[in-house]
Amino acid sequence: MVKTTMGTKLPRKLEQKMQVVGEQIKLARLRRNLSIAQIAERATCSPVTINRIEKGIPTVAIGIYLRVLYALQLEDDILCLAQKDEMGRALQDLALKHRERASKKG
């Protein structure tokens, strides 16, 4: 039986990104000549879950993604998430530029 979760609908743009991630994981598996069953066994999850990951279905837990990446020897790829954060760095720089010095009390 499939569990249903409220509020799992993603904006279209994010759905597309999840599909790309799924395709990348599938390509990594195929390049290694591994079956869905083999990855499922190594990641200690079901073949159905691997299939859902490869289709980009957003309800799969991030921990399972990590186990699949580990099974593919790609676990360090998770460190690329939010690595650049150009907007965050720009906001930080902006805050530093506008920072005022504390007034000296005499």
From TrEMBL:
Residues 25-79 form the HTH cro/C1-type domain. It comes from the Bacteria. One of its GO terms (molecular function) is DNA binding. CDD domains: HTH_XRE. SUPFAM superfamilies: lambda repressor-like DNA-binding domains. This is Helix-turn-helix domain-containing protein. It comes from Segatella oulorum.
